[in-house]
Task: structure prediction
Amino acid sequence: MNSLCISTSQLECGVLVSIDDRNQYEVFNAQQTGELIQLIVHRLVHNQPIQQVIVDTGPGSYTGTRIGVAFAQGYARGLGLEWVGIRAWDILNILKPHHSTSVIAVKSGEVFALFSDQSIRSLPLSEIQNPFGYPCMNPQKYGGTTIEQRSYPQMMDWLLAMRTLAERGLGTQKLPEYYDQFSSSRL
Result:
């Protein structure tokens, strides 16, 4: 299926266009999301037939996630298509399947943690005893603590995992329960 995949919930953002199993993608910095997403999508799609719009629904950057979801919804609606939301946790579970706890760092020195019982909590990074064994999205330094770089999936792998989940019917048009759980002041 010809797909447009958009991920803007992390510090590194990306757009993937998959037409007849040929993939084109572009990666950009989250600080440029609002200015670049429309230009990048226009350049990559370039009048090719899109059948599905897939978007990363986070958790992650509060503003980045909202920009990506709003763009995906508007783009899909403008083309008369449905959009599919994919949770970051589900993407991590494809890329790092043997971890019982998934951790995604956010800008404020906190992490979102998804535990094996599917509960989600926002924790200060200092509460994570040893972040080095967990899959993390944004490798950053917070007060001298570094989240290990090697556990960071490459954006191309992230976007392809999104497409795979959508093809398996594991996406939804309903936004996840955590979407409004944490206020913008915390992200």
User: Anything to note?
Assistant: The two ends are 34 Å apart (CA to CA).
